[in-house]
Amino acid sequence: MNYKRILTIQDISCVGQCSLTVALPILSACGLETAILPSAVLSTHTAGFSGFTCRDLTDDIPGIAAHWKKEKISFDGIYTGYLGSTKQIDDVKAIVRDLLKPGSLCIVDPAMADNGKLYPAFDDAYVEAMKTLAFSADIILPNITEACYLTGMNYRENYDRAYIDELLKRLDEAGAKTVILTGVGYVEGRTGVVVYENHRYAYYEHKRIANGCHGTGDVYASAFVGALMHDKSMYDAARIAADYTVACIEYTQGDASHWYGVKFEPLLGDLIKACA
Length: 276
Ligand code: PXL
Prior knowledge:
Blueprint: E1 5-15, H1 20-29, E2 33-44, E3 54-56, H2 61-70, E4 75-80, H3 86-99, E5 100-108, E6 113-114, E7 117-118, H4 124-134, E8 139-140, H5 144-151, H6 161-174, E9 178-181, E10 190-197, E11 200-207, H7 216-228, H8 234-252, H9 268-275
Parallel strand pairs: 1-2, 1-4, 4-5, 5-8, 8-9
Antiparallel strand pairs: 2-3, 6-7, 9-10, 10-11
Helix pairs in contact: 1-7, 2-3, 3-4, 5-6, 7-8, 8-9
The structure holds 3-hydroxy-5-(hydroxymethyl)-2-methylisonicotinaldehyde.
């Protein structure tokens, strides 16, 4: 693999093993120079902690981007996650337009919802803005809830292949290019990821661990980006990231005090080997 510089834009949740505290170590372990742009700084993530603080960094972003532009800094990939505000999405799109090297990939995890609901910080205006970022990206990694928000389809807990096909068709019609749809399970005890590339459906199924942990989406997306940047195919990157995420969830299971995140660090060696 050539040495590559990637930029990831997402929040710093100081405690909680998600967003940048997951993406930075995973991408670095995958051998990538990882530049970061924090979208906001929170004392913790918003899923389960109460009374968290949040400083939105929207106003800092244009100045940071202007400095990078002046220094002629550019990136071999840009990967975005949880963003700080609706307005910030326009600044992120400008960064992708101005600082992503030609032919490089923009990968968007529209991290805004799960289990049928938006995260507390977001509203319809954010969803509308996220559509414009997601549908201009090369790859998106929504879960089913996020795909529903992006397409206006009704969220269902129980679904079949026809429902997933309709979701993919609507994403496609809205302008999505490659879609990595996570958390798709058709049978009891199993889940998996759909890789929808060039209008073709491929599916990697794996075991479903009953008590999922918070932050698995960020571990998954970061591992996917790390593997993809190792010139793995979309399908292989999706499979490597799924195997790693499942192993991390299994490693975390049974420790009730660790409800807020995934113990992903001790297994980074396995991810590095899988990417080799
Ligand atoms: O993992 C997604 C995420 C990222 N950042 C913050 C969050 C969440 C999910 O709840 O609250 C701040």
